[in-house]
Write a structure and sequence with these properties.
The protein is mainly α. The chain is built from seven helices and four strands. Helix 4 runs parallel beside helix 7. The two termini are about 65 Å apart.
Length: about 280
């Protein structure tokens, strides 16, 4: 930005130089254009050195100091000392910042490595648990795998709230109105199949608003998990029975979308489940 000074009147260059140098220092500090933190620190310091030089030029332009004699000598010494101080302080700050940066990188690498180890351990535990359940009942396991795959194939629609739901306030009101009936229908399905029903809390309006803005570009119609429940099964036979009920439409809910997170060994941690968006019949 200092390159703009030759195009400005000579009388205004000192004060403009101060302003442009200060702006450049802020840009370098906030933008950090260089990969190395030490280089960024040096770049910021260089801009402040330019600021100091132009500041002294402003002092000279006021004619407070004479062009000859002790005033010029004192000003020159002050400028030299100031710049040397900036250089020394910059070197110290740069070394400290670089050391901190390397320490942070080492910590991140250590955490990533530990996360990788724990991820492998979790996957081994989930795979072992699934294998043990699968061995208990081969037929039920086959029913679960094929049945969930079929549900996922049938129900691929992307769920949305009805267009009549004009805002989040109405969405929350309608969710509260059907919450009890939805829990009752889901509980009937899970318990009848031999599982354990866990009722989820109604998603808060604050969380719905945050999800609308952060995940769905302000479209509240895409928030489809305000009422939530979980069904847990300790054996394959119970899960197979629930899958059969859903395949035969023998429940009080209608599936809109089904995500098969059992096939392929589950997620990267080995965790397996089936996610469904449902509505009351």
């Amino acid at each position: 930005m200092i390159g703009l000074l030759p195009f400005t009147p000579l009388s205004t260059r000192p004060i403009l130089g101060c302003g442009l140098a200060a702006m450049s220092a802020v840009i370098y500090r906030e933008g950090s254009p260089y990969h190395d933190s030490f280089t960024n620190t040096l770049a910021v310091a260089a801009q402040w050195q330019l600021f100091i030089s132009y500041f002294f030029a402003v002092i000279l332009s006021t004619e407070t100091f004479s062009a000859d004699g002790n005033d010029s000598y004192s000003l020159g010494v002050a400028l030299l000392v100031t710049n040397l101080t900036v250089v020394v302080m910059t070197m110290i700050m740069g070394v400290l910042k670089n050391t901190s940066h390397k320490s942070n990188l080492a910590t991140k690498h250590k955490l990533r490595r530990q996360l990788g180890i724990e991820k492998k351990m979790d996957k081994a535990k989930f795979d072992h648990a699934w294998g043990a359940l699968a061995k208990e009942d081969d037929d039920a396991t086959a029913t679960v795998l094929s049945g969930v795959a079929e549900l996922a194939r049938r129900h691929r629609e992307t769920p949305r709230q009805a267009e009549a739901v004009v805002d989040i306030a109405q969405l929350m009101a309608e969710a509260a109105a059907v919450e009890e009936a939805m829990h009752r229908a889901n509980k009937r399905l899970v318990v009848q199949a031999g599982g354990v029903f866990q009722q989820g809390p109604l998603k808060s309006e604050e969380r719905v608003r945050a999800k609308t803005e952060n995940d769905y570009d302000g479209d509240h119609h895409r928030v489809v998990d305000v009422v939530r429940d979980t069904g847990m099964f300790s054996n394959m036979r119970g899960l197979a029975e629930a899958v059969k009920m859903l395949l035969g439409d023998d429940s009080d809910v209608e599936i809109v979308r089904c995500k098969d997170r059992i096939a392929g060994g589950g997620n990267s941690y080995g965790y397996r489940d089936v996610l469904m968006n449902v509505r009351l019949r």
